[in-house]
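Private note to self, pasted from the team thread so I don't lose it. Backbone tokens:
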């Protein structure tokens, strides 16, 4: 009986680690319009940490450039990604609070045998940061 429980635990643990590696990577949103530029980068690290940067440039803006940062932890449940941050994750640079933010991971289905090019992305469906809700970030192949 002990061996059965240990075997189940090992299989479950390996399965969880494998899923995390599938989601880990760099994701980006980029928009350039006239004299304005918006870039948002999200790195989901295999160790369960994340880093986020939002960069805005407005030619006529005051200030012209705005950078916002966040960091913390992420976890997954099926295709959902949940973001968490501890008090120690905030300082003068890292001011965005991703607590209670949720995103969904989307990729081409393994059952889809067509030649269609479907990009992998994550879409935020819930966030207390109003401009993140509904935001889609596409995976960047480094």
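Design output:
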């Amino acid at each position: 009986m002990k061996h059965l429980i240990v075997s189940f635990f090992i299989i479950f643990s390996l399965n969880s680690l494998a899923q995390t590696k599938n989601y880990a990577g760099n994701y980006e949103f980029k928009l350039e319009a006239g004299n304005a530029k918006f870039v948002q980068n999200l790195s989901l690290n295999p160790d369960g940490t994340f880093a986020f940067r939002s960069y805005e440039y407005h030619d006529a803006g005051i200030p012209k450039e705005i950078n916002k940062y966040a960091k913390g932890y992420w976890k997954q449940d099926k295709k959902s990604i949940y973001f968490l941050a501890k008090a120690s994750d905030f300082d003068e640079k890292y001011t965005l609070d991703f607590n209670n933010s949720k995103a969904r991971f989307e990729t081409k289905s393994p059952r889809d045998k067509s030649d269609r090019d479907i990009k992998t992305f994550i879409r935020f469906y819930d966030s207390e940061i109003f401009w993140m809700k509904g935001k889609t970030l596409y995976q960047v192949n480094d």
